[in-house]
């Protein structure tokens, strides 16, 4: 079957070809020709030049691509108005039945013609309609650059020169207005804005242009961006030059609407544009471009015989060439267009000129897709369409100098401003622009000046009761206000630091509704500034978010924040138990434990060998406690402690007591001699919970701040700064307040006078500090802020503060508050206690070891004790009876009686005397004992008895006044150990 079909197709192919050829002949054109229309103003040399470019492109394409469809270009004269252009387009669509239209020239003409293309499915390609209002969709393709593409380059220039305000000058048309919204957004990104738009009629008179220029001269802004057709721009610059607006201090930037045709402008126009900066697309030089110029001029002369030679081709001629080439390439890509037009029925129209008679191209969809997908290297650069329009690559920044221009640099989407196109990112990268010659031959304009007919700035100043920050007092002699204060001096100093003279006058502002001639609220004054009633506001104005919505603030020149000041109350110095306060209770407990333990250790070690720690239980406790307390005051001089272990424990206790005594004395001295004060309130929550009244400064935003912090409006009272002290003294329940909220600068002034009995407490509620107020977008804000930095970072601010606040630094009432760190605590001395405890443990272990090995040496201890008693008695006086129990096993009691008459010793005692004296001399080393006698104030006797019994009588023949040592053994037999008698 396939073979049969193939054979039939071969037999019928001549017949089918004849039908196609016959149909093409019936339509009146060769089968390989595609008609393309072009809308040109043939009365303008520039558009005649575009015709030469398009025809040259089609010839070049046909020569390089033989065969296939041939493009036949049909030119329609659209004049310079929209109606003629629309009529010419209808003619091309209805009569010529073109498959595509190149044009129209202007954006205003293109709007209607684009609708015709969408209705007839005929592609419309424009290489000169650049307005962003024209959306490249459906059957419209923009082979030129959208005006929006140059906006980032213009914004980069504004940012590079640090200009903050720009006035666009544009014509009143879709072309002129289309760029403005995009320019506004781009300028906002570089912290600049548009304070005013200068709109020139699309068909203006010289008087209309001059009137607009005079209006611009009365404004402060001196940076202008011109976006309009070349004809109107030429007239604008001529008139601006005559008005003196191309002089020093001005900056002019022209968009590519003028930059693209700059070479076609006459010399008078160029002379009036000296110093102007321009932006235009950059065309890379190539061999193809260099060969184009000569052939272009030849074709132009051929098409326009007798006409003057054309100017050098501009970018529009390059784009026209690439556009014609793109159509030819798309037709070759799409293949033969054989479907033609679908013509509507004549029954639907009563006139041959009715738009309903336009046919609809059946090949349009295929052709527009082929055009959008076309990509090649044209003479103007790479031809590629994204979303139906050409994309930007590089813009050249040029500077008008003399009879021509010079390149100031380039802008690319990736690298921004560069001095040349040799892109590098190293340390030698040429960022920025080359030297620019400005209007008047001056240096870089600052972007704004005082207007020619301008007046002095009106600076609003609040009128309020006297304070050190701002004071506008009325002079009774002159009737005028004398404006003084810290804020006023700061503003005057800032104005002196400005890079240019700024004339101004202070205007005190009062509230007309108040009898006392007081100022209106600060927020209302800021609104007056935003309405341009005043040029600025100077005073103690706090930067807060609500005000910044409608005015601009400079940088702050004071400390920021809101805090509260409260009265102080007496603390410890009048307290009954103040002497206990220097030491923490836990430390008192530790000291008592050390005291008791030290006494226990000394008693345990000395109780067997020392008379002082013997006796009854009560006597032992009293003596031990008294001895420890005596050691606490001073080191004991009496040799009551004999054992080295007890001496070791005593030394630890004395060292610890010495350290505690020094610290205690210092802390107690501080508490008793310095006024100890504490704030009556700790924070805002305590005020709210107590239901206390809270004060704030009259007219201050602090009222709104307190309301936002959940403070009851009925619990707030307003005062002037000089009433703060009296209101705090009265207190919350006596017609005053418990705390006063205000900004930190005001509280510093208050505390410099009243800090003895007041203190600043609580958290800091952050604010922006004091700043100067200007209308939104004022060019002064940036310069004034920089001048504020110069003043506040220099020495001038010091002299101003000394003038208004004195040399004394505000006293710190917090120094009068005893902090927890001034009390001696356990944690601060626990290291000392740990060392003491460690030494005690070591001493206890040594004592236990010694006691274990010396349990059987009681005899020697008894002899030592008796000798000790004798030595002590030698230095005693008075009448006293001493009973002393010696040893735990001997049950030996000693009783001394004083004031007995001296008696000679009997012979029986002579022998004992020598032995006793020798033993006593060995123990005590006393010279009196070495001679065998004890010098006392009276005679003594020793009596022996069992525990709990009566004293026993000395043996027969032993007179009173004899010191005898008698032992009671386990069988209750009395035995004389020895005796001494005083001579």
From TrEMBL:
Against CDD domains, the record matches this protein to:
GluR_Plant, PBP1_GABAb_receptor_plant
Taxonomic superkingdom: Eukaryota
Query: Where does the chain cross the membrane?
Result: 587-605, 832-853
Pfam families assigned: ANF_receptor, Lig_chan, Lig_chan-Glu_bd
What residues does the Ionotropic glutamate receptor C-terminal domain cover? 458-807
Locations listed in the record: Membrane
How does it sit in the bilayer? Answer: Multi-pass membrane protein
Family stated for the protein in its record: Belongs to the glutamate-gated ion channel (TC 1.A.10.1) family.
What is said about its interaction partners and assembly? May form heteromers.
State the protein's name: Glutamate receptor
What is this organism's lineage?
A: Eukaryota, Viridiplantae, Streptophyta, Embryophyta, Tracheophyta
């Amino acid at each position: 079957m396939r073979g049969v079909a193939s054979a039939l197709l071969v037999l019928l192919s001549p017949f089918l070809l004849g039908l196609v050829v016959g149909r093409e002949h019936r339509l009146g054109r060769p089968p390989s020709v595609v008609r393309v229309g072009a809308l040109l103003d043939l009365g303008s040399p520039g558009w005649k030049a575009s015709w030469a470019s398009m025809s040259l492109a089609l010839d070049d394409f046909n020569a390089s691509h033989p065969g296939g469809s041939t493009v036949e270009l049909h030119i329609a004269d659209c004049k310079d108005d929209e109606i003629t252009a629309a009529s010419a387009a209808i003619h091309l669509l209805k009569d010529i039945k073109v498959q595509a239209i190149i044009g129209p020239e202007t954006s205003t003409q293109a709007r209607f013609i684009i609708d015709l293309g969408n209705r007839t499915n005929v592609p419309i390609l424009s290489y000169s309609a650049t307005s962003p209002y024209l959306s490249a969709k459906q059957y419209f393709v923009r082979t030129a650059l959208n005006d929006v593409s140059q906006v980032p380059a213009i914004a980069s220039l504004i940012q590079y020169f640090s200009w903050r305000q720009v006035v666009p000058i544009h014509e009143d048309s879709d072309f002129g207005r289309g760029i403005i919204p995009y320019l506004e957004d781009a300028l906002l990104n570089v912290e600049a804005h548009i304070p005013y738009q200068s709109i020139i009629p699309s068909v203006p008179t010289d008087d209309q242009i001059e009137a607009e220029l005079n209006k611009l001269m009365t404004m402060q802004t001196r940076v202008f961006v011109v976006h309009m057709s070349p004809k109107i721009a030429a007239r604008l610059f001529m008139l601006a030059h005559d008005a003196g607006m191309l002089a020093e201090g001005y900056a002019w930037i022209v968009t590519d609407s003028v930059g693209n045709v700059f070479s076609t402008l006459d010399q008078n126009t160029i002379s009036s544009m000296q110093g102007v900066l321009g932006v235009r697309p950059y065309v890379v030089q190539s061999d193809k471009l260099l060969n184009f110029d000569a052939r272009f001029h030849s074709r132009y002369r051929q098409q326009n015989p007798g006409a003057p030679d054309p100017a050098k081709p501009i970018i529009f001629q390059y784009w026209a060439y690439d556009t014609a080439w793109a159509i030819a390439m798309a037709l070759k890509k799409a293949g033969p267009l054989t479907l033609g037009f679908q013509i509507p029925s004549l029954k639907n129209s009563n006139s041959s000129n009715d738009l309903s008679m336009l046919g609809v191209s059946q090949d349009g969809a295929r052709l527009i897709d082929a055009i959008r997908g076309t990509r090649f290297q044209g003479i103007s650069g790479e031809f590629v369409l994204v979303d139906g329009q050409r994309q930007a690559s590089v813009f050249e920044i040029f500077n008008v100098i003399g009879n021509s221009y010079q390149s100031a640099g380039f802008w690319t989407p990736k690298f921004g401003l560069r001095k040349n196109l040799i892109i590098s990112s190293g340390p030698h990268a040429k960022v920025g622009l080359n030297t620019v010659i400005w209007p008047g031959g001056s240096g870089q304009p600052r972007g704004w000046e005082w207007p020619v007919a301008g007046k002095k700035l009106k600076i609003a100043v609040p009128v309020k009761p006297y304070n050190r920050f701002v004071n506008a007092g009325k002079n009774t002699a002159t009737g005028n206000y004398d404006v003084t204060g810290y804020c006023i001096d700061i503003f005057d100093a800032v104005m002196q630091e400005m890079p240019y003279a700024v004339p101004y006058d202070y205007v005190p502002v009062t509230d007309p509704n108040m009898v006392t001639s007081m100022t209106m609220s600060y927020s209302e004054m800021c609104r007056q500034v935003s309405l341009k009633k005043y040029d600025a506001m100077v005073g103690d104005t706090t930067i807060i978010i609500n005000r910044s919505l409608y005015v601009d603030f400079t940088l702050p020149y004071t400390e920021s924040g809101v805090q509260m000041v409260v009265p102080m109350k007496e603390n410890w110095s009048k307290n009954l138990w103040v002497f206990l306060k220097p030491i923490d209770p836990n430390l008192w407990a530790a000291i008592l434990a050390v005291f008791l333990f030290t006494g226990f250790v000394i008693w345990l070690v000395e109780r067997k060998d020392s008379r002082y720690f013997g006796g009854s239980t009560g006597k032992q406790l009293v003596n031990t406690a008294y001895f420890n307390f005596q050691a606490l005051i001073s080191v004991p001089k009496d040799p009551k402690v004999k054992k080295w272990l007890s001496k070791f424990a005593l030394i630890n206790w004395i060292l610890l007591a010495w350290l505690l005594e020094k610290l205690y004395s210092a802390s107690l001295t501080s508490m008793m001699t310095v006024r100890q004060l504490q704030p009556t309130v700790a924070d805002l929550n305590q005020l709210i919970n107590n239901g206390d009244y809270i004060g704030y400064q009259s007219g201050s935003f602090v009222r709104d701040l307190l309301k936002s912090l959940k403070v009851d409006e009925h619990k707030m009272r307003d005062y002037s700064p000089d009433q703060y002290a009296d209101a705090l003294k009265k207190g919350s329940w006596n017609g005053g307040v418990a705390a006063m909220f205000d900004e930190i600068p005001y509280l510093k002034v208050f505390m410099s006078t009243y800090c003895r009995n007041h203190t600043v407490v609580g958290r800091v509620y952050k604010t922006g500090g004091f700043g100067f107020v200007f209308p939104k977008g004022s060019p002064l804000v940036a310069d004034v802020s920089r001048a504020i930095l110069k003043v506040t970072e220099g020495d001038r601010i010091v002299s101003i503060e000394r003038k208004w606040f004195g040399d004394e630094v505000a006293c710190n009432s917090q120094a009068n508050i005893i902090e927890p760190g001034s009390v001696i605590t356990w944690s601060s001395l626990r290291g000392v206690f740990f060392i003491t405890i460690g030494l005690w443990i070591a001493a206890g272990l040594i004592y236990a070891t010694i006691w274990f090995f010396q349990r059987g040496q009681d005899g020697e201890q008894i002899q030592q004790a008796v000798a000790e008693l004798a030595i002590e008695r030698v230095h005693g006086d008075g009448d006293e009876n001493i009973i002393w129990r010696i040893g735990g096993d001997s049950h030996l009691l000693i009783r001394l009686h004083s004031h007995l008459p001296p008696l000679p010793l009997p012979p029986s005692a002579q022998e004992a005397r020598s032995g006793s004296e020798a033993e006593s001399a060995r123990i005590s080393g006393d010279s009196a004992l070495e001679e065998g006698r004890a010098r006392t104030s009276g005679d003594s006797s020793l009596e022996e008895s069992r525990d709990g019994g009566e004293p026993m009588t000395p043996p027969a023949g032993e007179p009173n006044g004899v010191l005898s040592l008698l032992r009671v053994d386990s069988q209750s037999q009395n035995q004389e150990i020895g005796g001494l008698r005083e001579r």
